[in-house]
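=== RUN LOG ===
request id: a7f3
mode: sequence -> structure
chains: 1
length: 307
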Amino acid sequence: MDETYFEKESSVTNLVRGASIFWVCLCTLLVLSGCTSSAYRSLEPAGSSARGSSSSNTSSPVVQSRPAGGAPASNARTASPESRPDQYQVRRGDTLYSIAFRFGLDFRRLAAANNIDSRYTIYPGQVLALRETSTRAAAPAPSGSSASPSPSGPTVNNTSSQTVTNSAPRPAAAPSASGNASNNNQLTWVWPHNGKIVRTFDSNVSDRKGVDLTGEIGDSVVAAAAGSVVYAGNGLPGYGNLIILEHQGSLLSAYAFNQELLVAEQDQVSAGQAIARMGRQGDQPSLHFEIRQEGKPVDPMRFLPRR
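=== RESULT ===
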């Protein structure tokens, strides 16, 4: 009988010991959980909340350059007059054409407003007033003199400044009945790519200042008309690898989101000549194509031949 008694007492003791261990472990877990939550909360910035947070610029498919000279970054490809800063400080890789294109200005009138002659030479660090005048850019200064003073001296570098000499501007003729626009020298337009049109021009939408054409990565992108390369780079926010061509009649054409650029600034190109390889816009192979007249976006369908 004594042996049975001790066996029962031992069983009860084991049950009590097991229950005690269970409650100790449970309490320990609760304490540790509270400490961990406090530690995570202490790492959050004051006033921040993980719930409902979002990251900026996730919709842009291209490498964005840093804003310079008081020019705020914007998702809009072309700054509206309301959002355009008063001044812009030139940085390495800029050309007068790219600055005018970015802010929706005519490069000739921008040059005139800043007393820049028709060679359109600018320098890193130079501050430009972002406005237009109706006066034509002055003729180039005589050899040996500097028409555009540089804060650090007029040392010309192909990657940091740009000299472009243009003939006197010729007015663009109105579009012909066939859907093309031509001038006295018969400027002929062709499609920069034969892909499907997936987005058309809308002057009221900031990212629809041209047409978007779909295709395959690496497809040839061709010059839509004869002209000269006045910009080739990736310094304009919202355009990726971009080429800008100058044409007769105060016209520019732009080819954005290229995988590879096949021409360089100051190259002369003919209509239909391959100038780039198609890249990606967002998650789709695409070319964004624009035409600007006197700095303002116009509907490319007015100039391109009917399909």
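=== NOTES ===
The radius of gyration is 31 Å.
The first strand starts at residue 87 and ends at 89.
=== END ===
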